[in-house]
Amino acid sequence: GVSGLSRDVLLSLFPVTGTKIYMNLGQPDVIEKYLDLPFDGIGLMRIEFIVSEWIKHHPLYLIKIGKPDEFVNKLADGIARVASAIYPRPVVVRFSDFKTNEYRGLIGGEEFEPEERNPMIGWRGVSRYVSQQYEPAFRLEVRAIKKAREEMGLKNVWVMFPFVRTTWELNKAIGIMEDEGLRRTADFKVWIMAEVPSVVTMADEFSKMVDGFSIGSNDLAQLTLGVDRDSEILGRMGYYDERDPAVLRSMKKLIRVAHKYGRTVSICGQAPSVYPEVTEFLVKEGIDSVSINPDTVIYTRRLVASIEQKLLLRKR
Ligand code: PEP
Ligand code: MG
User: Fold this and answer.
1) What is the ipTM, given to two decimal places?
2) Which residues form the PEP-utilising enzyme C-terminal domain (predicted)?
């Protein structure tokens, strides 16, 4: 690494924590810059950057012009760049989570994307993958994951479904993934994001279907409080707040239920990168990992270690 010390030596300089410290990442190349940081994996790898900056074309357009492999190969390359750099630590790759207006901005996108009045709660996340229109593109995303895991041998690649609303749609999407030959196994974990309050309400049922949850506190706050993330006036008035007791209570409930069913809980929204008190709350509630921005990894590892130490002393 840049410091001239080996990674093992570097990591030994930082406190060990029971709670895993993961990092959020969107641009594959920047991983090189962060290799010296003491993180245990990538808890959220967004693929939107790869699609908009490397692939640039709408996947359905690429299928239409007979170049689906362009999508699969470039996406697999982006994922592999990160997964090989940090192997064997896990990389949780989130399936695409563009909103319709963002998909429309891709080359050839307008033909395939409706104009929605409210894209934030529109045709997004899993509702896309199970739709007749987008399903072929979802299959390309799955093939890219499969290529990274099987052809490139990167078994540290896991997946995460964003914007899950119901068990039936998730069941259908997992079915499509299995149809492409990707099944949940001990080394292939499938997570879902807890962003829509229905995931918390139905956490027991979702627990039977997946290995873990990751709290998308940005969307969970928006939808729990009924506050548009982008509303300036509500933002100024202080309504949009991931520390709101209703949001915290929701996170706590999810951890309780998921653990009852032996499932893990992580968080990949902005909250723990911005509010140490949220990190403290979640560690006390027993969250399994927190995934944060690279610039807060060192601070958060130290913070989590001190919270865990306090908890241990209290238990004695
Ligand atoms: C979230 O909602 O907290 C999240 C991580 O997803 P995004 O911000 O990409 O919607
Ligand atoms: Mg979200």
Assistant:
1) 0.98
2) 9-308
The whole-number pLDDT of residue 1 equals: 55
pLDDT at 59 (0 to 100): 98
Q: Would you state the pLDDT for residue 315? A: 73
Ligand 1 pocket at CB < 6 A = 97, 195, 216-219, 268-269
pLDDT of residue 8: 76
- Ligand number, closest to the Cα atom of 242: 1
Residues of the chain with pLDDT under 70: 1-3, 316
111 CB neighbour count, 10 Å cutoff: 10
Q: What separation in angstroms does the CA of 306 have from each of 14, 18, 37, 185, 309?
A: 12, 11, 18, 34, 5
Of all protein residues, the one whose alpha carbon is nearest to atom 4 of ligand 1 is 216
CB 183 within 8 A of CB 105: no
